[in-house]
Design goal:
Elements lengths: L7 H7 L26 H8 L14 H14 L3 E5 L2 H10 L7 E5 L4 H10 L6 E5 L4 H7 L4 E7 L11 H10 L3 E5 L4 H4 L9 E5 L13 E5 L1 H15 L5 H11 L2 H21 L3 E5 L9 H7 L6 E6 L2 H11 L4 E2 L9 E4 L10 H6 L6 E5 L5 H13 L2
Helix pairs in contact: 1-3, 3-10, 4-9, 11-15, 13-15
Bound molecules: pyridoxal-5'-phosphate.
The site of pyridoxal-5'-phosphate has 14 residues, from helix 4.
Length: 394
């Protein structure tokens, strides 16, 4: 059943599910099976050949995974989705489904470090090259695309700088060059931003983050056209094998039921934290797309419905002062990852973006003192008080 007539809160709960046909169970069943029996040898042959409905082997597809896929596709307004073992499995599967030896990618330089490594270190071994540009200015994308460019790869807001890419303009440039537009929408989630509506072709997620929302499962997702997803599902995903465990798919589905609720609260809490940091005398600078001081605030207002839960900043006194802040906090948790119920804080240059060479980090605006904050769902006054006290004690 199509759920497009429903709003995002409704779809987050209902899309892709119905009470279990056999048992009537209202909650989504977890199908922890690696194989599925064929009623007859003939039906087995037909299912194996893709000529009959049915499941064969969980690396090829599994009912719990497929429920997650329908839910993600509905929230993003996409034709289809593919659930994967991690965000990096989603990103690598989607890219490898498109490129061949000799192909070229243009990517934003404000990008998750795993994606940077994949594009900068791994794919060149297979003859696929990437030009990284400051994609906050679309002219840089236009200048970098050429005849062999197959993908314009955006991430908006970008990790960790919260630089934005104009998705509609980027997609127009990509289309003109005969390339596909990929957008990593992990920070925004479909609640705050729907890249397909803005002209993108493929949307990528680390479902580990806001989709899961409770810090207890790793997963990823790709959203795109039926044809794109089918090709990725029956090609790279099957052959490379980055499939999600049905149990993790179930945990993420469980989390997604409250995604719109949680994201609204993340948005509100992050804005309060952003305002505190903006005014705090111990802070050198702060970046949050929802603050008027963000250099691309106008673009954020145009292409986002909310500004997300991620904030980054630098403490006066740089790396050492930032380290003192992180040692002073009590409520916030000092760790990597993001999108959790809990507020998480980390130093990007030495952790999440350690694998990015210092020169590339600097080019992308990742200063040595940058502190990344994933604002959680606690009472905003408590998060603000924790940060305020920790900053004042520096
Ligand atoms: C924006 C973004 N994309 C992709 C990933 C990779 O996701 P995963 O860790 O689930 O593989 C991350 C992880 O932090 C991320 O922040």
């Amino acid at each position: 059943m199509s759920h497009s007539k429903y709003g995002l809160f409704t779809q987050a709960i209902h899309a892709g599910t119905a009470p279990d046909r056999e048992t009537g169970a209202v909650a989504v069943p977890i199908h922890m099976a690696n194989t599925f029996a064929f009623p007859t040898s003939q039906s087995g042959v037909a299912t194996f050949a893709g000529e009959a409905e049915g499941h064969v082997y969980t690396r090829w597809g599994n009912p719990t995974q497929e429920t997650l896929e329908r839910r993600v596709a509905a929230l993003d307004g996409g034709e289809a989705a593919l659930a994967t073992a991690s965000g990096m499995a989603a990103i690598s599967t989607a890219i490898m489904s498109v490129v061949e030896q000799g192909d070229h990618i243009v990517a934003t330089d404000a990008i998750y470090s795993g994606t940077f490594s994949l594009l900068n270190k791994e794919l060149p071994h297979y003859g696929v090259t990437t030009t990284f540009v400051d994609a906050s200015d679309p002219q840089n994308i236009a200048d970098a695309v050429h005849d062999d460019t197959r993908i314009v790869y955006l991430e908006s807001p970008g990790n960790p700088t919260l630089a934005l890419n104009d998705i509609a303009v980027g997609a127009e440039i990509a289309r003109g060059a005969g390339a596909l537009t990929f957008v990593d929408n992990t920070f925004a989630t479909p609640i705050n931003q729907r890249p397909l509506d803005l002209g993108a072709d493929v949307v990528l997620y680390s479902a580990t983050k806001y989709f899961c929302g409770h810090g207890d499962a790793i997963g990823g997702a790709i959203v795109g056209s039926e044809a794109f997803i089918e090709n990725a599902r029956t090609g790279i995903l099957r052959d490379v094998g980055g499939i999600i465990s049905p149990f993790n798919a179930w945990l993420i589905l469980r989390g997604m039921q409250t995604l719109p609720l949680r994201v609204e609260r993340h948005n509100a809490n992050a804005l309060q934290v952003g305002r505190l940091l903006e005014e705090h005398e111990a802070i050198e600078w702060v970046a949050y797309p929802g603050l008027e001081s963000h250099p691309q605030h106008e673009l954020a207002r145009r292409q986002m419905r909310g500004y997300g839960g991620m904030v980054c900043f630098e403490v006066k006194g740089g790396v050492e002062a930032g380290a003192r802040l992180m040692n002073n906090i009590e409520l916030c948790t000092l760790t990597v990852s993001l999108g959790d119920t809990k507020t998480l804080i980390c130093h990007s240059a030495s952790t999440t973006h350690r694998s990015v060479p210092a020169e590339a980090r600097r080019a992308a605006g990742i200063t040595d003192g940058l502190v990344r904050l994933s604002v959680g769902l606690e009472d905003p006054e408590d998060i603000v008080a924790d940060l305020d006290e920790a900053l004042t004690a520096i």
